[in-house]
Amino acid sequence: MFAYLIRRIGQSLLILFAMSLLVFLAVYTLGNPVDSLVSPDADQADRAAVIRQLGLDRPIWEQYGLFLWNALHGDLGTSFVYGLPAVDVILMRLPATLELAVMALLFSLAIGIPLGVLAGLRPNSLVGRTIMSGSILGFSLPNFWIGLMLILVFAVQLRILPSGGRGETVSVFGVAWAFLTLDGLKHMLLPAFTLALYKSSLVVRICEAGTRDVMSQDYIRFARGKGLSPARIVCVHILKNILIPVVTIMGMEFGALIAFAVVVESVFAYPGMGKLLIDSINRLDRPVIVAYLLTTTLIFVIVNFAVDLMYAALDPRIRLSDEGAT
Amino acid sequence: MSGAPALEVTDLSIAFQSRHGLLTAVHGVSFSVGRGEVLGLVGESGSGKSVTGLAVMGLLDAAGRITSGSVRLLGTELVGLSERQLRKRRGRDISMIFQDPSTTLNPVLRVDTQIIEALTAHERLSQKAARARAVSALEAVGIPSPAERLTAYPHQFSGGMRQRLAIAIALLHRPAVLIADEPTTALDVTIQAQVLSEVQKLAADQGTGLVWISHDLSVVSGLADRVAVMYAGRIVETGSVADILTDPAHPYTSGLIASVPSRNRRGSPLAQIRGAMPSLAAVPPGCPFHPRCDFASGICARAMPEPLAFADRIVRCHHPLAAAARAETLSA
Ligand SMILES: Nc1ncnc2c1ncn2[C@@H]1O[C@H](COP(=O)(O)OP(=O)(O)OP(=O)(O)O)[C@@H](O)[C@H]1O
Ligand code: SF4
Ligand SMILES: [Mg+2]
Known about the structure:
Number of strands of chain A: 2
Oligomer: heterodimer
Largest interface: A-B, 24 and 35 residues
Shape of chain A: globular
Number of strands of chain B: 12
Bound molecules: adenosine-5'-triphosphate, iron/sulfur cluster, magnesium ion
Distance between the termini of chain A: 14 Å
């Protein structure tokens, strides 16, 4: 277990290192930031001063070393737009995106698991077929279009939900959270649902396939042969088995949720990290773009790690060891 | 031994819904088992043994159903009972164990969970009492240090131990009938014999009637009181073990006996029955065994033989073996 942890942390650091290199090359070496920082009518001396100040006159590996050194100290530069450290700008927006993604994850599980299991239990029934066709629809409808339709129906026509923004927040340990207020929840409902729809189709598919597979196993026959109730068989014997792939896949998809949040946040004018990214790209705010990419990578690494631990907790056949299961 | 037998199956037919329409897998099968008695159900792969066992339990999968016949458990008709009523009997009055012990237990649930849920499905008892019962159940099937092993997962047991776990669970409520669907086939030979004798002893001790399904006549011969031989979904011969082994009346039975490796024929090649069991969609007309039978005549390809009863035996054949001896019995 200990060896496993060490190895896993090592891997995570390697991923972060590789990502930092990519981000550095992609964002810092393409184009010339001096152009956007110095006014066009500045003279040669002014330009040279800025270049020296940014360290752009040094060799590239030295620039990267400096970038890495600063990054390790939590310094990813100062946002051109906000005049604040880029990390702070990201961290201010991070909670909004995180709670949106978590809420979307919960939605997709709450929708996907019951429907998927039901479809798996009755694969040839009308209900089962309807659910599976519905899941194909969920896969193919584009996120932004669903978002717009939801706004049209619930905000414009029915006027029961807000069309955008984050709503009221309360501060816990200095972080503003919206999920603790009713108004905040109302604002989160539509974007979270939009974000969840694609994922819930995925959960439906995993659960349907899993349930069908598990249902045909001898241990389900044996369990029925013991005289267990259908509720016990579904909620314990089947669910505990299909939760293993659900947790693994959804954990990996959490990163994708954050990525898709970019679109959804833009549609709903939701002040999260994703919308910040779009704004920053439009304004060429490089430090913020870098901070976004690195933060997202970090979240990705942490979530994958957590998924591994959960996977081991759910499946007794898996032991966390250097060689994997033996 | 008074009253109804533990299990009495009469004229049971079972069909599956398939792409080729409704296919009958089992045709009018009848047998019965008394308390403490052992019935061997023997036949090649695909003859319908498992399907028969599952139908008796009411555990056929969605495509399969009982099309006619009766299953009486301790005198009560099971065919036509609701799932709810059947559930009350499963695990309590009748149990079933399966061939592959690596798949009979749920891999993600602890052993104690799987035992205790079987107990509480039919009895109200405290967690503490349930654990005590679980420990003694494991002890009874010969699992060492049962109290510690209770919290383990199935994969932490060997194949033989897993089959013992399944047996312990199946016998928790001292059922009147245990259907054992080739429970030793997947085990090592030495373990096979141990598990076999343990089940036999436990069943005899608690008066459980045993339906032992096997494709291996030699396994059944040492265990059963009576034998029913199945071919292509029909019972082609039934009788006591001694009668069947020494004086088989059906050519298929005699073929099965000839293919059992035995000491007196050491060195001589094993006689295999030529050909193979037909698939459900392609059962030949007349006696389904005729393409493989050395005794077949014209009528065999045209007409299905009717069951012929003599002494305490039944045989389904136009030309039963040792016909002379039989004719005497019939006319007497
Ligand atoms: N779910 C099912 N759907 C369709 N046909 C089935 C199904 N289950 C069994 N059958 C058919 O019923 C027939 C009898 O199968 P069964 O499993 O009872 O054979 P068996 O005697 O137990 O053989 P084995 O020794 O291989 O276990 C086979 O022809 C099989 O193809
Ligand atoms: S009926 Fe004919 S074909 Fe069938 S077993 Fe008897 S002799 Fe053979
Ligand atoms: Mg079978």
